[in-house]
Specification:
By secondary structure, the chain is an alpha/beta fold. The protein has three domains: 45 residues, no CATH class; 138 residues, Aspartate Aminotransferase, domain 1; 195 residues, Type I PLP-dependent aspartate aminotransferase-like (Major domain) (Aspartate Aminotransferase, domain 2, 3-Layer(aba) Sandwich). The protein contains 14 helices and 17 strands. The strands form five sheets. The protein has a seven-stranded mixed β-sheet with strand order 4-12-11-10-9-5-8, sandwiched between helices. Strands 13-14-17-16 form a four-stranded antiparallel β-sheet. The protein has a two-stranded antiparallel sheet with strand order 1-2. A hairpin with a 4-residue loop joins strand 6 and strand 7. Helix 6 crosses helix 10. The longest helix has 27 residues. The structure holds pyridoxal-5'-phosphate (PLP).
């Protein structure tokens, strides 16, 4: 455990702040820019804490019953566990990870330069800034509105800049509270369902059907073109809809999204539209739900720079909540979301936001297109590999994911087989919902040589 105290072994710990020189003046030192270099006599040491298993002491706090409903680990944690176990068994294995969906290519320099410039400015008096607006910098909000929602009637004030789409999904769940019922595509990004469970919107997990009670799972399969049969979906308050979808890679067409908006309007539901992969769309599928007339009254949209600019570690995303979107009592959804954001979030990092502005410069946009183009070439290699082996593959065209069908097989078994025999990590489809059973998701995020090597190993395995 890292402690912020000063102590040498055997001496009493002293809080760090006591060691600031008594004459220390932040303003005076800041203007000379020297204070950063002054070395404080701080000796930070690691103190091991006793493992939880060693103690029989328990608090009197009962566990959150909603968290107790969650099954096993979060999908990607479970995969990491199995990967680690594989490495223990095969310490020399050169594992190729096409699993989690983390980006691999360097962030284009035009973007890192923008971040570096802002970072350096922070060490000058004029360039320093502390807390910013919780909703993000006006300039970035305006640039997002102009770049992604030009002519769609979305304005700067409708855009809430964030530390990523995943974090926003949790904040949206806090906004809705525990008394709503959600629908989600099956399969889909696990965060919609898991955050719903944590919020207490669901009943217990039903092992027989592998679903939580009080969630509508909208089945998306090759048979229905990966778009749910809305005539058989009961009304819910909230509809999470991800397009292009993770994991299937399917992007909904204009006609399908028009049906979805009508369905939401007929039912008085709110759509939370996740467009984290919109820039991967290469056909004429809409890139935003707001391309559909009337959507502003029934939808909000969350998005991210993660998969466009390699910002999975930098962290920057946004959520659009149009002013036209109202709760049943006429109250503005955006106003309540603003309240949640201001209460639980202190704004995205200023350095990330500078990066966001870099992304949206003409050179930045071109650079993101180039990175996306690179991953799409990877996608083609993966698709060609599996199709040459006789598999049916889906997705890929509008997303960095290839959804590979292994009819009749358990997807964790396929995951284990590919890991064991090819040392390649994929993602078992069932981790995205029961509708993912019989599939694995193969991610196109990877260095080219890794993708080619993975393709070679897969061809050997399934020839
Ligand atoms: C559909 C979808 N939404 C959101 C996210 C999370 O994005 P972020 O990195 O902005 O939190 C992911 C990440 O994989 C995703 O697949």
């Amino acid at each position: 455990m890292m402690t912020g105290t000063t102590a040498s072994p055997g001496t009493k710990a002293t809080p760090m702040s006591f060691l600031l020189p008594s004459s220390f003046s932040l303003r005076a030192s800041k203007s000379s820019n020297l204070w950063l270099m002054r070395r404080l006599p701080v000796n930070v040491r690691c103190v091991s804490s006793s493992p939880a298993a060693d103690t029989s002491y328990t608090t009197k706090v009962s566990r959150n019953a909603n968290i107790a409903k969650l099954q096993a680990g979060y999908l990607f944690r479970e995969m990491a566990k199995r990967r680690a176990a594989h490495l223990l068994k095969h310490p020399d294995a050169e594992i190729i990870s096409l699993g989690v969906g983390d980006t691999t290519e360097p962030i284009p320099e035009v973007i890192t330069n923008a971040m570096a410039e802002r970072a350096h400015a922070l060490s000058t008096v004029d360039g320093y800034s502390g807390y910013g607006a919780e909703q993000g910098e006006k300039k970035l909000r305006a640039a997002i509105a102009a770049t992604y929602y030009a002519d769609l009637g979305i304005e700067e004030a409708d855009v809430f800049v964030s530390d990523g789409a995943k974090c926003d999904i949790s904040r949206l769940q806090v906004l809705f509270g525990s008394n709503v019922k959600i629908a989600a595509q099956d399969p889909s990004y696990p965060v919609y369902v898991d955050s719903s469970v944590i919020m207490g919107q669901t009943d217990l997990y039903q092992q027989d059907v592998q679903k939580y009670g009080n969630i509508e799972y909208m089945r998306c399969s090759p048979e229905n073109g990966f778009f749910p049969d809305l005539s058989s979906v009961p009304r819910t308050d909230i509809i999470f809809f991800c397009s292009p979808n993770n994991p299937t890679g399917a992007a909904a067409s204009r006609d399908q999204l028009t049906q979805l908006v009508k369905f939401a309007k007929d039912n008085g539901s709110i759509i939370v539209y996740d467009s984290a992969y919109a820039m991967y769309i290469s056909d004429d599928s809409p890139k935003s739900i707001f391309e559909i007339p009337g959507a502003k009254e029934v939808a909000m949209e969350t998005a991210s720079f993660s998969k466009y600019a390699g910002f999975t570690g930098v962290r920057l995303g946004w959520t659009v909540v149009p002013k036209e979107l109202l709760f049943s009592d006429g109250h503005s959804v955006a106003k309540d979301f603003n309240r949640i954001v201001c209460t639980s979030f202190n704004g995205a990092s200023t350095i990330s936001q500078a990066g966001g502005l870099g992304c949206l410069s003409p050179e930045g946009l071109q650079a993101m297109e180039d990175v996306i183009g690179f991953y799409k070439e990877n996608t083609k290699i993966i698709v060609d590999t599996f199709t040459s082996l006789g598999f049916n593959v889906y997705g890929a065209k509008n997303a960095p994911y290839v959804w590979v069908h292994f009819p009749g097989r358990n997807s964790w078994d396929v995951f284990a087989e590919i890991l064991e025999k090819a040392h390649v990590v994929t993602t078992p489809g069932s981790g995205f919902g029961p509708g993912g059973e019989g599939f694995v998701r193969v991610s196109a995020f990877g260095h080219r040589e890794s993708i080619i090597e993975a393709a070679r190993r897969l061809k050997q395995l399934y020839k």
